[in-house]
Design brief:
Bound molecules: glutamine
Strand content: 25-35%
GO molecular function: ATP binding; carbamoyl-phosphate synthase (glutamine-hydrolyzing) activity; glutaminase activity
Protein name: Carbamoyl phosphate synthase small chain
Helix content: 10-25%
Shape: globular
Structural class: alpha/beta
Distance between the termini: 48 Å
Enzyme class: ligase
Keywords: Amino-acid biosynthesis, Arginine biosynthesis, ATP-binding, Glutamine amidotransferase, Ligase, Nucleotide-binding, Pyrimidine biosynthesis
Oligomer: single chain
Radius of gyration: 21 Å
Number of helices: 12
Number of domains: 2
Subunit structure: Composed of two chains; the small (or glutamine) chain promotes the hydrolysis of glutamine to ammonia, which is used by the large (or ammonia) chain to synthesize carbamoyl phosphate. Tetramer of heterodimers (alpha,beta)4.
């Protein structure tokens, strides 16, 4: 196997072995502590522009299957693992990790001390990093990393360009796709909703012309402040139709409601983040993947209310609008991968949609996707 290096902007270097394709990408190096679900993580569009480090030491042991992708195209800039399984074993397995990375033009690195890298990121915060194929390239790469900025405007890259429908016989949800995971669409369908998926830069008038009974604001990559046009759309939709935001969708609802967001030091990425519902005191173990958060002090002067907090660091994990039907969570009720403690939020959304009597919910409309 060929040698490959990971270089960080602070000059730290990790030597390992190359997996996946030969392209030497750079990106924001982040870590996820989930013990399983690597296929879903690698295909979650929210990681666009990031090099994903998995802290679980053995990755790829059940291979890659046809069913568990969160999007058709994967957007990670790279993958870092301690050990990549060469002989996966599972009845659904179609490819090895290496084969799939190569086929999708994703470079990977294996054989480094992922715990050391993770500790470094926890202390220093997420950093820019790049792969190198020779030790001679390192100094030049470090300089280049220091000069370059983190990637921006990833949503435009991952959002659908055309509208499409996933049918069901119940009420109609328009899902604004900022980089939506398939799991969210699947769960909406499972709750009986017909789902119309639309591009991120849709206007509120266009959304309302589809006669939605509710609007889902999806997850997605990057900084919510990169897409002011999306914030504007959400602001105009408030009070017109019930809203449910997940992750980036939650951050956009916060901005639309007048609160602020900020970058976290190293974010929350994993499958065991405890979240407390402040209304019931109940704690849910949740799946998370975010690097930005809502500033709690900024919520005070708005019509929003904090409904959930993270038990580990008390960061904002859920919001509700106190005047109009709208709520959001920073974590992933659809799991994919991860614990399913928070699945009831889809029922909460359905109840909200059923109770709501906005003009939009009374309109009938036929949609030609
Ligand atoms: N999963 C997401 O939607 C992530 C939201 C946002 N890009 C963040 O990193 O905070």
């Amino acid at each position: 196997m060929t040698a490959r290096w990971l270089v960080l902007e602070n000059g730290e270097v990790f030597k390992g072995k190359a997996i996946g394709c030969d392209q030497l990408n750079s990106g924001e190096v982040v870590f996820n502590t989930s013990m399983t679900g690597y296929q879903e993580m690698m295909s979650d569009p929210s990681y666009c522009g990031q090099i994903l480090t998995l802290t679980y030491p053995l990755v790829g042991n059940y291979g890659i299957n046809r069913d568990d992708f969160e999007s058709i195209t994967p957007y990670i800039s790279g993958l870092i693992v301690k050990k990549a399984s060469v002989h996966p074993s599972h009845f659904r397995c179609r490819f090895t990790l290496h084969e799939w990375l190569k086929a999708n033009n994703i470079p990977g690195l294996m054989g480094i001390d992922t715990r050391k890298l993770t500790r470094m990121i926890r202390e220093r915060g997420t950093m820019k990093g790049a792969f190198c194929s020779s030790i001679d390239q390192i100094d030049e790469k470090v300089t280049r990393l220091q000069e370059q900025a983190f990637q921006t405007n990833q949503v435009a890259k991952v959002s659908t360009r055309t509208r499409y429908v996933t049918p069901a016989s119940g009420k109609r949800i328009v899902l604004i796709d900022y980089g939506a995971k398939k799991g969210i669409i699947k769960d909406l369908n499972a709750h009986g909703f017909e789902v119309i998926v639309v591009p991120y830069n849709i206007s509120s008038d266009e959304v309302l012309s589809l006669s939605p009974d509710g609007v889902m604001l999806s997850n997605g990559p990057g900084d919510p402040e990169d897409i002011p046009e999306a914030v504007e759309t959400v602001r105009n939709l408030l009070g017109q139709v019930p809203l449910f935001g997940i992750c980036l969708g939650h951050q956009l609802l916060a901005l639309a409601g007048g609160a602020e967001t900020e970058k976290m030091r190293f974010g929350h990425r994993g499958g065991n983040h405890p979240v407390k519902d402040l209304r019931t005191g109940k704690v849910a173990i949740t799946s998370q993947n975010h690097g930005y958060t809502v500033n709690p002090a900024s919520v005070e002067q708005t019509d929003l209310e904090i409904t959930h907090i993270n038990v580990n660091d008390r960061s904002v994990e859920g919001l509700r609008h106190t005047v109009v039907p709208a709520f959001s969570v920073q974590y992933h009720p659809e799991a994919s991968p991860g614990p399913e403690d928070a699945k009831d939020l889809f029922i909460e959304f359905r109840n909200m949609v059923d109770k709501n009597q906005t003009p939009a919910s009374k309109k009938e409309g036929i949609v030609h996707a």
